[in-house]
Amino acid sequence: MIPFKGRTIDRERVVKVYRNLHAHSPEEKWSIQQDGKVVAHAESLVLSGVEFKVSQKGRQRVLRERVKNVHAFLIGKLSCSDRAEAVASSGGSKVIYNPYHCGTFITYEGGFPVSFSHEVFLTSEGVFVCDYIRGDGALETS
Question: pTM, whole model, 2 decimals?
């Protein structure tokens, strides 16, 4: 994890994470926000108690203007980051978001809406979960 502008993360509080669309290096793949400010960047990390959130107003702007903007977040607490790559490669479910195809995060296989996960693994290859709550409230496990 690389601190941004000398800022620090309060690990006891929730963070918002999004894919950095303007990353200059792999270490900057994910941007981490707290109190509305970017506090760090990371190549991989683990979040717990994660809500998958899409701003529909931001999505509508993307659809209207055909220009990307940050409007989809993973909201949760930072956890131990050294397991992210191992879990992703061992068979967690991949979660994707594409504003042009769907208004929510969905599983790569099956296209099930994802609203919450107990633990999320963000890597250079994407977002992975071992369990998740679908949009209809059903719990799924990988």
Answer: 0.88
